[in-house]
Amino acid sequence: MLRAAIPLLLVAALAGCGDDDNDIGEPEDVQAFTLRVQLLTTDNAVTVWGQADNLADAHAAAEAAANIVVGSGGPDFGDRDGNGVAEGTDESEFGILPGLDGTPPGLAALVDNECVEADVLGGSWDDPAARWAQLETVVDGWSEENNTIPELTSNPMRIVAWASLALATDSLDEAVEFGNRARTNVNLSLNAIDC
Fold first, then answer.
1. CA of 118: how far to CAs of 181, 189, 195, in Å?
2. Residues near 66 by Cβ (< 8 Å), separated by ≥ 6?
3. Cβ contacts of residue 63 below 8 Å, gap of 6+?
4. Helix, strand, coil abundance in the chain, percent, nearest 5
5. What confidence category does residue 12 fall into, taking pLDDT thresholds of 50, 70 and 90?
6. SS3 33
């Protein structure tokens, strides 16, 4: 689903690296560039999810977004919706956030940027298992009357939370709404790279 978009995302990411005179300017450091590409791939999944016209497509795109964020070492990586296809796994061996045991360390952890630390990582990952356990607690406690998602300090982790809620619903309207809520967290994450 997302493979065809990756070359376009790379072009879009590179297009932002120059000025109006077609001078490519100073190259972005490799870690920040790689993080940007993963976030743009997540952005593509969230766009598909938020515009889905059927529940299967919404679930597949939510699964892809979550897998890209958590990476192969993260919680519930793989076929989250149980349909036999693990969306987003080709793009996410190395996730945006650290794995359950800290390996791989996550792309955001490799970027030396205070805004990425604050908005993407959302603070220290000295205890990755505890950070991921908080995600489960927040998702389990969520309701329309009790929005627990803001308790998560990492915007990409909030994307995973919205994806978890989307995957748990049988309502297309709810799933799409959760995708649209995740859009803010994608935008905040991308903005952090350039702060």
1. 20, 10, 11
2. 76, 80, 88, 159, 160, 163, 164, 167
3. 79, 80, 81, 86, 87, 88, 163, 167
4. 60, 0, 40
5. very low
6. helix
- SS3 assignment, position 143: strand
- 143 strand-pairing partners: 146
Task: Give 158's Cβ-side CA count (13 Å radius).
Answer: 25
What's the DSSP call for residue 27?
A: P
Distance CA 162, CA 156 (A): 10
Over residues 131-141, the mean pLDDT reads: 97
DSSP-derived 3-state class of residue 30: helix
pTM of the model: 0.86
- HSE at residue 71, side-chain half, CA atoms within 13 A, is 22
Q: Tokens 């627990």 — which residue?
A: 148
Q: How many residues does the chain have?
A: 195
Q: Residue 33 is which amino acid?
A: F
Instruction: Report which of 180, 195, 161, 190 is spatially closest to residue 76, judged by C-alpha positions.
Output: 161
Q: How far apart are CA 59 and CA 176, in angstroms?
A: 9
8 Å CB contact between 6 and 34 = no
Kindly state the average pLDDT of the residues 13-31: 52
